[in-house]
Amino acid sequence: MDVILIPGFWLDASSWGQVTPLLEEQGHRVHPVTLPGLESVDADRSGIGLADHIAAVVDLVDRLDGPVALVGHSGGGAVAHGVVDARPDRIAKVIYVDAGPPADGDAINDELPVVGDEVPLPDWAVFEDADLVDLDDDLRAEFRERAVPLPAAVASDPIRLVDERRYDVPITIIACEFPSALLVEAITGGQPWVRELGRIRQVEYVDLPTGHWPQFTKPVQLGQAIAAALPALG
């Protein structure tokens, strides 16, 4: 199956480097993507918003034959959900890595510190302790070395969703920062931040306890979890 890997904020296609081979070993055709404005530190990020990131992945889906699976990490989960809304008949499965589907009108994170028209990787103090579990000093240094500033509008633009067929596409959530039981509890309690997740008809939860970047802290376990969540090859 064609599997598109969508990175979270500040990351490009290479961030999936330790995960991709594990999926290819299972016979999948893997397509890690670098989203617009993330090509390099010197890339032009002016005028790039969330819709542009979604459109870039929709274009890739349109160039592939047959059903496609999407894997979205963190903010990449919102991109994946936008792609499902645009192409619900083409997406066989969505896997959210420490992420979830946003509701229409939601922004990914409009509280991150903006510098000009971009959001550089902030100081680690900006993040919660749960984000940084297992991200040791060496991994933090490696992350900061590879980080590319995010186009600011990607974080703050409201997502626009129009096709309710998106609720028919099965998903798996790989929960890292906190156990999936908390998500289920939030849905049961009617919490607004999971209102979109609560409408999806087929949801599977997988717990992978670590911080917010399991592709760095537990890449083998993440690759195995993604492979297990993908539809069987026909």
Automatic annotation (TrEMBL):
Protein name listed in UniProt: Alpha/beta hydrolase
Gene3D superfamilies referenced in this protein's UniProt entry, alphabetically: alpha/beta hydrolase (3.40.50.1820)
Hydrolase in keyword set: yes
InterPro entries the UniProt entry points to: AB_hydrolase_1 (IPR000073), AB_hydrolase_fold (IPR029058), Sec-Metab_Biosynth_Hydrolase (IPR052897)
MF (Gene Ontology): hydrolase activity
Keywords (A to Z) from UniProt: Hydrolase
The UniProt record lists the keyword Hydrolase: yes
Residue ranges of every copy of the AB hydrolase-1 domain listed in the record: 3-221
